[in-house]
Design goal:
alpha/beta, 14 helices
């Protein structure tokens, strides 16, 4: 194992100079710093995590707060988590994953220790009880999601409102005049989860703008609920020809349910979804969809946090524009 003394000997400097080059605690000449960095690369030296933390007064650990509440789709949440971990490792940081639904108490418990340098917070609600504490903390934070009042916070996410609009605009462009939204489980709306509320708002705004008859139907994440929602939609909207799905687990069961009720996709019914590309592409009838850019959002959250840790100004709001991919599930009315 390469030691700091080996780096010092190779660079022709003292071990303390190597330490200063790593921590930045004392100024050294640019030429000396380059020599130390060259020796570190050539020898493959990696500072011990504990020593690195002592040198920088940082833990080099980020907290990722993902309360695993009912109604969330864990596979998609884990895509975000993996992207955060991968991006953090590129910055030589580890990630502490917090999944308990503890609200403000859980944040305070972590923030009151030296466990983490900063926080990334997911499953943001419009009126989230964690926000006052996040605004007061002496540790930087980034939210994946937008509350109703984002002042004083740093937020990043897909523009879910625009995603809902884009799905409806696609159906409207194909001539569909009666559409339905099969949304997240009811408890997600009861909690006022930001992304779900924004999809509904975008969906209804675009439907009204285009003079389209529309309705919104929360749906539990199981095939039986998908069948019930399909039956209800056709009972209430017998002229239905377009559906937007924002509920990953019921995407394929919903298509099966409509076809069992006599509507073929896409000949009789066009289906669009807001979901990961890989899910949309592997359904029996590949689904026209707006992608959920988990990798881009997770990486972006880490990059924002690294800049905040370095004292660099960052934009308060980062909204990623939606991207729709047309597949076999939609066609002209």
């Amino acid at each position: 194992m390469v030691k700091i003394t080996d780096v010092a000997r190779h660079a022709g400097v003292s071990p303390s100079t190597v330490s200063y080059a790593l921590s930045g605690k004392r100024p050294i000449s640019e030429e000396t710093r380059r020599r130390v960095e060259d020796s570190i690369r050539e020898l493959g030296y990696r500072p011990h995590a504990g020593a690195r933390a002592l040198a920088s007064s940082r833990s080099n650990v980020l907290a990722l707060v993902v309360p695993l509440r009912t109604g969330i789709h864990v596979p998609v949440v884990m895509q975000f988590a993996v992207s955060v971990v991968t991006a953090a490792r590129r910055h030589d940081h580890d990630v502490l994953l917090l999944t308990q639904e503890e609200g403000e108490d859980g944040l305070r418990r972590v923030a009151d220790t030296a466990l983490v340098d900063a926080l990334i917070v997911m499953d943001v609600q419009l009126h989230d009880g964690r926000l006052p504490l996040l605004r007061r903390l002496d540790r930087p934070s980034v939210l994946i999601g937008f509350p109703a009042e984002p002042d004083g916070l740093t937020c990043i996410d897909l523009d879910f409102g625009a995603a809902g609009e884009l799905c409806v605009e696609h159906l409207a462009g194909l001539g569909h005049r009666v559409v339905g939204l099969v949304g997240s489980p009811p408890e997600v709306y009861v909690r006022e989860t930001g992304f779900a509320q924004r999809v509904v708002r975008g969906f209804t705004t675009a439907a009204d703008r285009n003079g389209i008859a529309s309705s919104v139907h929360p749906c539990e994440a199981d095939p039986a609920a998908a069948r019930q929602v399909a039956e209800r939609l056709l009972r209430e909207r017998p002229a239905l020809t377009g559906v937007v799905v924002h509920n990953e687990p019921v995407l394929e069961p919903l298509i099966d349910a409509f076809e069992a009720l006599g509507l073929r996709v896409p000949q009789d019914l066009s289906v669009t979804a807001i979901c990961p590309d890989e899910l949309a592409g592997r359904v029996r009838v590949p689904v026209t969809s707006v992608a959920i850019p988990a990798a881009e959002v997770g990486t972006g959250a880490v990059e924002l946090l690294m800049r905040k840790l370095d004292g660099t100004p960052v934009p308060r709001a980062t909204l990623l524009p939606p991207r729709l991919t047309v597949r076999a599930s939609t066609r002209p009315r």
